[in-house]
Specification:
Strand content: 35-45%
Largest sheet: 10 strands, antiparallel
Structural class: mainly beta
Length: about 400
């Protein structure tokens, strides 16, 4: 018997042991101390008494003293008859199951491709036709001189009659200068794009929507793209049919979803949303205005405000030009930000102050506040007119309106 395991988390790793699940509780080898991951192999001589004198019905993988903050995953389990363990290999029934998943995932796309009547206009007979496909035969001058339909065995000559033209069905090579109302259009395609990816599929226009169902035959990926009045949605599936990437552009928002791990019902995804507020980009090197005698320290150490989506960063090296030695009161304003720099909720901005640029007292930590109206103000006591100030922080900006 052999298997692999992973042991993820914090705290005690614990031990792992292989034994029967009931009496006589026979153990297969020794108890191992676990680590982050491992490969366990146990080769034992089968005892007839295990099944004739006990109640055991299976083999148990026992784990002891594992911290509750850890998760142990056992995989690649393999039972073999013999005296030498071999590398793990997929069971035949599992392999067939994977093949069935691939085939099922492709069946819908293939059936849609097969259902579309293919119409060719050329001098030589089209290859790989299916029943119902049409061939408008061209002569050496490129003029159409015959119309044939594949009947399953041959290209059978067909006539263009008045009843065909009236009515329920019109098959043609080109239709010029026409208005077509209340119609449904279906077209199959097979092409390789500029990114060298080979696509096969069907495009269908009906009920106010463009639907594209496709596959990549080289890797059996499939997908659908739909465009309608509500927006655009595109889904890409792997060969097992699990959607590993989804994009939706609807009602002014972009939604993204990518597969992290797993398949089917056990699949885990990361998702995100992007709207106009997330795309705002702005920056300035001066606030709307300074108050109470504050100004930039020097041209080399300016004020800076940047917005990237909803994330805003602010920094500044300021000096106070006042001459009074009296303290600023808590709440005294320093500057005012533009509306796009206002925070979603009031923010705390850490900083430092000095008596002068080369002050002997060194840096003294201070706390500044930024209210929702974009006013940066003093939150620490002991701040005097004429001192110097530096600060830097990031915060979440409000939505612009």
């Amino acid at each position: 018997m052999s298997f692999d395991y992973t042991n993820v988390g914090t705290g005690a790793y614990g031990t792992i042991l292989v034994q029967l699940n009931e009496t006589p509780w026979a153990r297969f080898g020794v108890t191992d101390a676990m680590k982050d991951n491992g490969h366990v192999v146990r080769t034992v001589q089968w005892q007839s008494g295990w099944t004739t004198s006990g109640t055991a019905t299976g083999i148990l993988i026992r784990m002891d003293d594992v911290a509750t903050t850890r998760t142990v995953t056992v995989y690649n389990m393999q039972f073999e008859r013999g005296n030498k363990a071999t590398d793990h290999k997929v069971a035949p029934e599992d392999t067939q199951g994977q093949i069935d998943k691939v085939n099922n995932g492709l069946a819908d796309t293939n059936s849609k491709i097969a259902a579309v009547t293919k119409v060719d206009s050329q001098a030589t007979a089209p290859t790989n036709p299916k029943k119902g496909d049409q061939w408008w035969v061209k002569d050496a001058n490129g003029e159409i001189n015959a119309f044939k339909i594949w009947d399953g065995t041959q290209w059978a000559p067909s006539t263009i009659t008045q009843s065909l033209l009236i009515i329920k069905e019109l098959d043609a090579v080109n239709i010029n200068g026409s208005v077509i109302n209340g119609s449904e259009f279906t077209n199959n395609f097979d092409f390789t794009g500029i990114d060298k990816i080979h696509f096969q599929g069907v495009t269908q226009i009906k009920d106010g929507a463009v639907n594209i169902t496709w596959k990549i035959p080289e890797n059996n990926q499939t997908g659908e793209t739909k465009l309608d009045a509500s927006g655009l949605i595109s889904v890409i599936r792997d060969s097992s049919g699990t959607a590993f990437s989804t994009i939706r552009l609807q009602m002014g928002r972009l939604y993204l979803s990518d597969l992290l791990s797993g398949t089917g019902s056990s699949a885990k995804f990361i998702t995100g949303r992007l709207d106009a507020q997330d795309t705002i980009r702005n920056s300035i090197a001066t606030p709307t205005y300074y108050t109470n005698g504050w100004a930039p320290w020097t041209d080399y150490w300016p004020f800076l405000l940047k917005r990237n989506g909803r994330q805003i960063t602010i920094s500044g090296y300021l000096k106070n030009t006042g001459s009074s030695s009296s303290d600023f009161s808590i709440g005294a304003s320093i500057l005012r930000l533009p509306d796009w720099g206002e925070p979603f909720t009031p923010a705390i901005i850490p900083g430092t102050r000095q008596n002068a640029v080369t002050g002997s007292t060194g840096d003294v930590p201070v706390v500044l506040g930024l209210d929702k109206s974009g006013i940066l103000h003093i939150e620490s006591s002991g701040f005097k007119v004429g001192q110097w100030l530096s600060f830097s922080a990031s915060y979440f900006g409000k939505d612009l309106s």
